[in-house]
């Protein structure tokens, strides 16, 4: 059964030995890539379901077991006082008691090594590995294992372990997905208050927020997870885009488009929280139809008001009353996020089912969007505080952030929001926004012949192989030659030995950062353009990059087309400047 290597050993899977778990899964009706992408969404949705930390972790472990096509998954929690890694949940039904009764010390076995180093590990053929021991009470069987750290906001919460029994070979790709899932679960555990001690920390933060600017403190509290989440979303969006270009299946393309939209909405939410307390406002406003905003919000929340409701035997009737062409100048993903929050709030107010009436209309003052439910209603006292950060009537299952976020989005759009409600008679949330200003007709320039970019020699530097691989594939598909480096030190050495058209580097890397790579590039070749891509990029947008060696910055996540265009434009601009 489970094996725990005594030393930090990383086995290399070979292509000529045994089929991988990915190959075994590929025979299903849904591709491995589709299943693993869908699992990201399913885990996020599971975190919003009623239940405690154990319920969520058990559901997440079951989803990950299926997605990785492994035999079982176990989640270990790091106890701060004892420094033991204690198993919380496992999907192994046969040996559940043995696994859950065997805590691991830091540095002991695969689990302990992963926790001590913070690095994911993979061992194939663990049953024949002399540095592996079996968990007491479990039989010795052919088995391969891998583990990934569960880190959130720089803190190790535990380790996620996956095991594949039989003569199968886990691959580095399987390990990369386990790393993604472990990071996502850790973030959701902390973000949704599933770690017991988080509640006391939140009370401390609440007192600090009362004394200071609440929105600014909220942004600071969330900033620790931005980089990891943006990296996850960057890898997801990149893979989606590659699959979109490589498939002719129209149904698959539609599904990928939906996943892409949801991931972009998640990215927009992270970015908004990242800039929550900043004085400047988002400027990427476009004409947006409020009816389409509601349709997209319904699609995003469908799992709650349709799938889960049907499982429980409840029905939510959706009534749409849309006037045509009710348009505003807005940021579509933000407005979708706001309406989705209102929809989820309404569903929570109707635990046994009910009706949702969704309306858009033009008014003499502008445009109006309303979400009305037939739920339990709220009191006048609650109405006065309903948009305050951290105020919730849902107990430990609520964060008190949903309606505060909605209020912030509406203010960003120069609008206002209010609520009409009485206990027992449902609630109606009404958003009023300025109408979209008509765009002046501009003369259309004659279409130019598309200029095909020449093949460029590019340097790509990133310590995250999930991002590194997908970006390299995208640039290679564009006809460019890519030199890949997973650390800044080796990249700086190569800069002194080769000539590149553009250097593309991650910002946050251990020992040698992206700033170091940029400065080295300028010292060797002053006219060499440097592009930084980073999960922290949103913090530097619009900032000063003088004397850093960086010529442009792209915040993760981004579309691969945007990356290719940025790289090619940088090369063209610097090439033209060098020839003048």
- The stretches of 5 or more residues where confidence is low (pLDDT under 50) are 3-29, 194-198, 211-224, 275-282, 395-400
Major sheet summary line: 6 strands, antiparallel
Number of strands: 20
Proportion of residues in extended strands: 15-25%
Whole-number mean pLDDT: 78
What would the principal axes of the Cα set say about the shape? globular
Distance between the termini: 68 Å
Q: Numbering strands along the chain, what is their spatial order in the largest sheet?
A: 4-3-2-8-7-5
Number of helices: 18
Question: What Rg is obtained from the alpha carbons, in whole angstroms?
Answer: 26 Å
- The helicity comes to 40-55%
The class by helix and strand makeup works out as alpha/beta
Question: Explain this structure to me?
Answer:
There is one protein chain. It contains 18 helices and 20 strands. With 580 residues, the protein is an alpha/beta fold. The protein is globular and about 70 Å long.
Layout of SSEs?
Blueprint: E1 3-5, H1 21-25, H2 32-46, H3 53-68, E2 72-78, E3 84-90, H4 96-100, E4 104-105, H5 109-117, E5 121-123, E6 132-134, E7 143-152, E8 155-165, H6 172-191, H7 198-211, H8 214-246, H9 250-274, E9 286-289, H10 290-300, H11 302-312, E10 316-322, E11 327-330, H12 332-348, E12 354-363, E13 366-373, H13 380-385, H14 402-412, E14 416-421, E15 427-433, E16 457-461, H15 465-477, E17 481-485, H16 488-495, E18 502-506, H17 514-524, E19 530-534, E20 552-555, H18 560-578
Parallel strand pairs: 10-12, 16-17, 16-18, 18-19, 19-20
Antiparallel strand pairs: 1-6, 2-3, 2-8, 3-4, 5-7, 7-8, 9-11, 12-13, 13-15, 14-15
């Amino acid at each position: 059964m489970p094996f725990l290597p005594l030393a930090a050993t990383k086995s290399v899977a070979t292509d000529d030995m045994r089929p991988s778990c990915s190959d075994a899964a590929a025979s299903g009706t849904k591709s491995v890539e589709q299943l693993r992408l869908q699992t990201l969404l399913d885990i996020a949705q599971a975190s919003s379901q009623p239940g405690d930390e154990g319920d969520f972790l058990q559901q997440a472990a079951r989803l990950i077991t299926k997605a990785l096509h492994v035999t079982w998954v176990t989640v270990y929690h790091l106890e701060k006082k004892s420094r033991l890694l204690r198993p919380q949940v496992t999907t192994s039904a046969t040996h559940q008691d043995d696994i859950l009764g065997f805590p691991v010390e830091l540095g002991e076995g695969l689990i302990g090594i992963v926790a001590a180093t913070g690095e994911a590990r993979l061992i194939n053929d663990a049953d024949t590995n002399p540095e592996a021991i079996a968990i007491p009470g479990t039989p010795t069987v052919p088995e391969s294992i891998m583990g990934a750290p569960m880190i959130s906001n720089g803190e190790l919460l535990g380790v996620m372990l996956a095991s594949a029994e039989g003569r199968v070979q886990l691959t580095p790709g399987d390990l990369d997905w386990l790393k993604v899932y472990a990071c996502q679960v850790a973030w959701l555990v902390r973000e949704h208050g599933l770690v017991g001690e988080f509640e006391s920390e939140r009370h401390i933060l609440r007192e600090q927020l009362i004394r200071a600017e609440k929105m600014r403190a909220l942004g600071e509290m969330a900033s620790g997870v931005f980089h990891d989440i943006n990296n996850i979303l960057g890898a997801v969006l990149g893979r989606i885009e590659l699959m979109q270009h490589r498939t002719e299946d129209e149904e698959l393309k539609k599904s990928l488009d939906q996943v892409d939209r949801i991931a972009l909405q998640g990215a927009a939410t992270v970015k908004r929280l990242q800039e929550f307390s900043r004085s400047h406002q988002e400027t990427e406003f476009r004409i947006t139809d409020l009816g389409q905003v509601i349709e997209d919000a319904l699609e995003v929340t469908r799992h709650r008001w349709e799938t889960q409701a049907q499982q429980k035997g409840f029905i939510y009737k959706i009534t749409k009353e849309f006037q045509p062409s009710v348009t505003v100048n807005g940021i579509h993903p933000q407005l979708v996020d706001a309406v989705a929050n209102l929809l989820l709030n309404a569903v929570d107010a109707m635990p046994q089912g009910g009706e949702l009436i969704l309306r858009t209309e033009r008014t003499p003052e502008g445009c109006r969007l309303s979400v009305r439910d037939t739920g339990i209603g709220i009191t006048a006292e609650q109405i006065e505080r309903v948009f305050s950060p951290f105020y919730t009537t849902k107990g430990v299952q609520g964060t008190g952030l949903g309606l505060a976020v909605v209020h912030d989005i509406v203010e960003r759009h120069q609008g206002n929001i209010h609520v009409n409600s009485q206990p027992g008679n449902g609630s109606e949330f009404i958003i009023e926004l300025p109408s979209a200003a008509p765009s002046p007709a501009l003369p259309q320039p004659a279409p130019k012949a598309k200029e095909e970019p020449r093949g460029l020699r590019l340097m790509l530097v990133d310590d995250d192989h999930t991002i590194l691989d997908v970006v390299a594939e995208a640039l290679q598909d564009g006809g460019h030659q890519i030199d890949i480096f997973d650390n800044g030190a080796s990249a700086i050495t190569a800069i002194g030995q080769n000539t590149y058209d553009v250097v593309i580097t991650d910002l946050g890397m251990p020992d040698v950062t992206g700033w170091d790579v940029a400065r080295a590039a300028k010292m060797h070749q002053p006219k060499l353009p440097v592009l930084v891509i980073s999960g922290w990029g949103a913090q530097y947008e619009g900032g000063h990059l003088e004397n850093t060696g960086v010529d442009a910055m792209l915040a993760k996540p981004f579309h691969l087309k945007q990356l290719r265009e940025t790289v090619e434009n940088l090369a063209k601009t610097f090439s033209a400047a060098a020839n003048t």
